[in-house]
Amino acid sequence: FLVGKDFGASPAYLFSILHPERVLGVITLGVPYAPPGPSMLHKYLPEGFYMLRWKEPGRAEADFGRFDVKTVVRNVYILFSRSELPIANENQEIMDLVEPDTPLPSWFTEEDLSIYGALYEKSGFRTALQVPYRTVGDDLK
């Protein structure tokens, strides 16, 4: 069996299509099957949805670049700890959805923030944005 969750679901589906002899079954969580090909996300999601905003090259970098790395990490953990997913208005960016005085989620400590901030300070956000946001729906070669 092959198991995939969230952005790991699509590779699990694709692997099972390309190598059916190697897979007895596929179990996925969070993402229903969609045939390979161009993404249809833009048809079903609001324009200000974080996935669409971060898919656009340069947009997240400009949004994140207004803040230090630790603040970006803080904001991301706050945003994705809410019950609703972040959707920006037309004149907003995703980072604008967090007030500076919003506390961290109870399960994410200042020590966690320092560690993740230091790691992203070294690596940047490019890979985190490229995989998966900017590769969703890419044509298969």
From TrEMBL:
One GO MF term attached to the UniProt entry: hydrolase activity
Claim: Hydrolase is one of the keywords in the record: yes
Organism superkingdom: Eukaryota
Keyword Hydrolase (UniProt): yes
This protein's UniProt keywords: Hydrolase
PANTHER family: EPOXIDE HYDROLASE (PTHR43329)
Name under which the protein is recorded: Bifunctional epoxide hydrolase 2-like
Organism for this UniProt entry: Trifolium medium
Organism lineage: Eukaryota, Viridiplantae, Streptophyta, Embryophyta, Tracheophyta
